[in-house]
Amino acid sequence: MKLRNNFLWGGATAANQYEGGYLEDGKGLTINDVEMGAEHGKKREIHDFIQADSYYPSHEGTDFYHRYKEDIALFAEMGFKSFRLSISWARIFPNGDDVTPNEAGLQFYDHVFDECLKYGIEPVVTLHHFELPLNLVKKYGAWRNRKLVELSVRYAQTIMDRYKNKVKYWMTFNEINALFISSAPWHMAGILYQENEDKVNTMLQAAHHQLVASALTIIEGKKINPDFQFGCMLLYPCTYAATCKPEDQIAARNKLLPTYYFGDVHVKGKYTNTCLSYIESLGGKIEFELGDDAILAEGVVDYVAFSYYFSGIEGVGENIEVAEGNLSSGGKNPYLDMTEWGWQIDPIGLRNSLNSLYDRYQIPLFIVENGIGAIDELTEDGTIEDNYRIDYLEKHISAMIDAVEKDQVDLLGYQVWGPIDIVSAGTGEMRKRYGFIYVDKDDLGRGTLNRSKKKSFDWYKHVIETNGESIR
């Protein structure tokens, strides 16, 4: 098996980290718009309003709202076959529960998709990427409330009907399993746990509401256009047992249960034994409404999308040192190097992850996030020699090709996070850069926002031109 001739090479972004224009043309406030920037290594402060004289990175992002033509032209120059972006719910329904959509918001995404299609770039759209309208938190308590199922499906129907002839590939919720494995439920579901709240049951119920909303979105989407392709999107925390001790094998398996929980419901259309045993282990319960089982069974996905950045180890020993990662953590592996942010670099882990997911689900996979955050230094002539990024991506793409060619994994595409410098989701920093394209902006929001190409720009262009042959 070879990579598909129409393999979807590209890059991935999120509106709250990239788009900016946070109150332009009728857009409402989102949960990100009240999340302040933080110093390196510190958590961001969250309020339910905007404080004067404070810095909120999402308000400008890196200004895709005004520079989308320039950026998409650069993506096209690299030869992108696909571009993943998210739609901001509050740009379409400013309060989340408005009676009519905001036409200016709809027109913006019309322009973006038209620009992509002009260059033959396939839009890959995430409907919910940590982008909840703030009003839905204040008025309904966010995803705790079943009302959000109805409101989110109406939003999705509006979007899918509007762009039914422009978008084929959809994902419902970004890294939906992060609600279980992250300490930041604000991002995933607009939730800040109250002092006496039953956190386990709130978490399980919010997740159920999202799973039902996802299934209903797929059901309604297939009515709008039967050719739509829907994926779930998982954060995949590749995990190895710390030793060959049998108990460590169980610990490694247990680490992956929150991920397979969401994958199982999306792909198999039901709460499997994995899901039910996990609920029982937490001592929690879920309230179902009549018809939920049928909805989940019908609204299954066509592919499994996932993010991969790092791996970790897990065991029962007391001497396992923690390594932080993307919204989750794992034990340090002595055989791996680490990034400046403590993320373990494991290209072979990507091959292992592809095999684990494909063995379990037997439907096409899609890598929609993979990349390395680093501090890029401008040279005297204004260029960036980001050989570390080229090395990281080259090794991961090589492992991905091995999974396809040697292991027979069915893979739709590969998207780098992010193809242009954007604001860090965790801290709001700019210093943690991922892009092939440098954006002149610092951690305090200062800079011209001018774009310039890094060394990796032409490298990735050549990878796409040769459909991966250049790195074999």
From TrEMBL:
The superkingdom of the source organism is Bacteria
Signal peptide range in chain numbering: none
Catalytic center residues: 369 (nucleophile)
Report the InterPro entries cross-referenced here: GH, GH_1_N_CS, Glyco_hydro_1, Glyco_hydro_1_AS
The coiled-coil segments of this chain are: none
Q: Which UniProt keywords apply?
A: Glycosidase, Hydrolase
Q: Which residues cross the membrane?
A: none
Kindly give the Gene3D superfamilies that the UniProt entry links to this protein: Glycosidases
Q: Name one Pfam family in it.
A: Glyco_hydro_1
> Hey, which family's this protein in?
Belongs to the glycosyl hydrolase 1 family.
Record's PANTHER family?
Answer: 6-PHOSPHO-BETA-GLUCOSIDASE ASCB-RELATED, GLYCOSYL HYDROLASE
**Name the UniProt record assigns to this protein:** 6-phospho-beta-glucosidase
Q: Which organism is it from?
A: Candidatus Enterococcus lowellii
